[in-house]
Write a structure and sequence with these properties.
Four Helix Bundle (Hemerythrin (Met), subunit A), about 190 residues, single chain, mainly alpha, globular
């Protein structure tokens, strides 16, 4: 059975990726995410939740785009392997630090950010000191999907003032923590 991201790669390669100019490479898309992270952060810090939410969704979608483009066009690079997960962690971590702390629970925010930080440090230690091959896998991808959707539901709850959306976000984010802890036990994951 193929992993879920193979199906999303197939879908994106037949839709959105066909519309992209050929000069755009996956690393450019990752760079855009790095640029969006501080913008999203400051919009959320200053309470501009609509604008921040829109840019968060765009930035989260770039994660799917750069991965699909890299895998479907055989453009996987060492730079992308190193900086794509870092861009993801910065986006999720900064958004979590602000929104989850403000609207859900400080301890959930600390757990999400702490586990992400630990995963980054562990993966770099494995890669550079143990010389292990580190790559994304279904646990890490599932965790990222839960984190992204949890934060999207939270953004929608904040904007619409609907408590059930914030409750849904909370449940999804707790599921993301479960997958984060599971990924700690997978030697190859980040």
């Amino acid at each position: 059975m193929k992993p879920f991201f193979h199906y999303t790669d197939w879908l994106l390669s037949r839709t959105v990726l066909r519309l992209m100019p050929r000069f755009i490479v996956p690393n450019y898309i990752t760079a855009v995410r790095f640029i969006l992270v501080p913008v999203v952060f400051f919009l959320f810090i200053y309470g501009h939740y609509r604008e921040g939410s829109l840019l968060f969704v765009i930035a989260a979608f770039t994660d799917a785009l750069d991965g699909a483009l890299a895998r479907t066009t055989d453009q996987i690079t060492d730079w992308g392997k190193l900086f794509d997960p870092l861009a993801d962690k910065l986006l999720i971590g900064s958004t979590t630090a602000i929104l989850v702390t403000r609207f859900i629970n400080f301890y959930l925010a600390v757990t999400i950010v702490g586990v992400e930080l630990f995963l980054v440090l562990l993966s770099y230690w494995k890669k550079y000191y143990r010389k292990a091959k580190i790559e994304a896998n279904y646990l890490g991808k599932t965790k990222m999907i839960f984190q992204s959707f949890g934060l999207i539901f939270l953004c929608l709850g904040i904007i619409t003032h609907l408590p059930w959306l914030i409750l849904t976000a909370t449940i999804i984010l707790y599921l993301s923590v479960a997958f984060a802890f599971l990924s700690l036990f997978d030697y190859r994951s980040i």
